[in-house]
């Protein structure tokens, strides 16, 4: 039976999120889209048209409705009422078109070639304006009829477009190697309040993928023969309020192009759970906000990186026509107010689940500068709470991290000038293990200030592998399974000032194979006179060179061996107070030639070997 179309013509603008054809920008990454008066005037010049499908419409019949806007004459709205629809062909959507599907409308995908729906690229010239002002709202878009097939494609795919919105939709059950939504070369996109789930396969893919329009391998399409590949990234995409689960990765990218960066991306207020690899995987993003997401039961909560070990397959040469940008001096990545819990750790031939809460990775050729990690809560983490490599100038502030298998915050290989401040860390590793509170390896000039660390398996705060000129100040450390504060292997010139230490198992402050430190104004308490703690402060300098240790105004009480032990030449030990030491209050060993003691208050003896 022939079905009737319902047409409504009006000169009044529809109150839907459809926007004019000119480019626009985000007022800020977390805001709604803002348009100029010129854009609003352009929108009013289009004639409005509303059409409705009938339950059970075929692909051809739905395409007929979309084709009303094939020539771009209308500001078109298509209503899809409650009912079931089976698509046997990809739908093409044109500029200035809105689809509003009923919450009880279920659209099934029963074809392997092409997406559910993709923007029309028949006049593609590259850039962001091939398609403009496209909105899809509502409906259940279900690929389960072909989900068990080895081959398939994305549910939604948009390329070279401006002002694309997907909202209030459920999109699910794609075949292996497929995404639920692909944005490639999209300016001002919005994915909001959607439920995304269901992937049949192990090979890691993103439910929402942000891609660069590089070639038919990186961005395949049913229309690939007419796409102008131009290395166009995404700019100004907001992903908020979505629930994503039962997938390898929720949001992000696993390929990048040299000299090309996704920019102005906001990922906020999403619930991401039951993901075999990553909640968010951001590869070469600039001006990125990740905020207020609830992430749990994932392989890694948040991964931001410029380097990956197998990057020959993922970090590709730009096209010859691409104008490459220099590496950013500041990537401006803000990771704030997220909750991450119950990570998993496993390594297989297909999926790598690091187990970290937040993981930030650069390398010496492409350091990832400008990372801010603030006010996140991480619990039950199977490896590090925060792991960072080659991320200089980072700020890690006001985070709460508990119940980790490895160190709470661990920064390695060039995380210079980092600030780690006001974090609360508790229950880090299991008794007898190597987990610590805050650790630096081969990273200089860091500031570790006003953190509270309770019950680390080993060291509370530690510097290693030539982490020099770091300041460890005003921290509170309780019940460390090893040393409360430690500096190892040429981690020279540390400033260890004003810390409160209680209940450590080995030494309160420990320096080994280093040649200098300023250790002053610290309060150090062992458990009691019968505890197993060794020394309040233990200094093992580098032999046969001029060391420069200064120990001033420290208060040390209850140690099972020495209050202060020094085996370093030319040390200054001045105005310290040492009480309740089981052996000597101050012990100078054989390599303490030229060391000086002034005005120390002790209730036991001083021994010089």
From TrEMBL:
Keyword rRNA-binding: no
Name the record gives this protein: Parallel beta-helix repeat (Two copies)
Protein's UniProt keywords contain Metal-binding: no
Ranges of residues in domain Right handed beta helix: 349-475
Keyword field: Repeat
